[in-house]
Design a protein that fits this description.
This protein is mainly β. The chain has 2 domains: 163 residues, Endonuclease/exonuclease/phosphatase (Deoxyribonuclease I, Chain A, 4-Layer Sandwich), CATH 3.60.10.10; 70 residues, Aligned Prism (Vitelline Membrane Outer Layer Protein I, subunit A). 11% of the residues lie in helices and 36% in strands. Strand 2, helix 2 and strand 3 form a beta-alpha-beta unit. It is elongated and about 70 Å long.
């Protein structure tokens, strides 16, 4: 279940669930490695691009970075990775013009990576449409303690449209971002996922909080998906939706906290679901 149901907490709540990882440092770098073919862009930097890419990779290891996001990692990817020997690295999506040039290297295990292309691009200030610019979401397991609970970090890496011309500004603001599916006190519904199925609803009483949940997963169309959810409140009431399976996982908010929302991605099915906790 750990790979498909992600528990997400504000930093202050982590100590209640994973005391062994309650503090520490993480060394992070983001770097444009200028991996366009030399014939397209020389970058006005002396030396061969293949050699320079190997030098960059060696420096990433030398300086002990825990997580590195790189952009423009195109045609010299193999040279970079030959020396940037961090234990977990995303695979290339290809050179120019096929790949996005976005990769993540990490000392922590990479659980999942998603690549998303921007809906709009502009060549007003350069060849921004030459490659499929966009962003990646890479989920890292920074703690995997069976007794205390797992802790994950979502790392975003993106390459936006360059320039300040009108077309560039339009491209950078063209892609919207979905929000968690919750119903607010004023009746506003923020939805995620598809429109099928039968809705289940429970109106919370005054001072009643959603404090625990059970998620069950199963296979559908050769993919592991969330099949059901059961919510339990501080008043002992329950709400169920979906079909239970034999593979389920329990989630309980720490004392003084409550579940206040979900985190996931837009789509017509639910593959992964995260819970957001807040202090009450």
């Amino acid at each position: 279940m750990r790979r498909n149901s992600i528990l997400l907490l504000p930093a202050g709540a982590l100590t209640g669930l994973a005391s062994a990882q309650s503090s520490g440092d993480i060394n992070v770098l983001t770097m444009n490695v200028a991996g366009l073919p030399a014939i397209l862009q020389g970058n006005d930097v002396p030396g061969d691009k293949t050699v320079n890419s190997r030098l960059i990779g060696a420096k990433l290891v030398q300086h002990g970075y825990d997580v590195v996001n790189v952009q423009e990692d195109f045609n010299y990817h193999a040279a970079l990775y030959s020396t940037a020997t961090l234990p977990f690295r995303t695979a290339t999506s290809g050179g120019v013009p096929f790949g996005s040039g976005l990769n993540t290297l990490s000392q922590h295990e990479i659980i999942d990576t998603v690549r998303v292309k921007w809906d709009t691009c502009s060549n007003d200030s350069g060849s921004d449409c030459l490659t499929p610019k966009g962003f990646t979401l890479t989920r890292l397991a920074v703690s995997d303690d069976a007794a205390q609970g797992a802790a994950f970090v979502d790392v975003y890496n993106f390459h936006t449209d360059a320039g300040t011309a009108a077309g560039d500004l339009t491209a950078r603001t063209a892609t919207g971002h979905p929000t968690p599916p919750v119903t607010l006190a004023d009746g506003t519904v923020l939805a995620r996922g598809g429109t099928g199925g039968t809705a289940s609803e429970l109106v919370l009483a005054a001072n009643e909080r959603w404090t625990a949940a059970t998620l069950c997963q199963g296979k559908r169309n050769d993919r592991t998906r969330i099949f059901s959810i059961e919510a339990r409140t501080s008043a002992g009431r329950t709400l169920r939706a979906g079909t239970t399976t034999s593979e389920c996982c329990q989630f309980t908010a720490p004392a003084g906290w409550a579940i206040v929302g979900f985190l996931g991605r837009g789509g017509d099915e639910i593959d992964r679901l995260g819970f957001l906790y807040a202090r009450q």
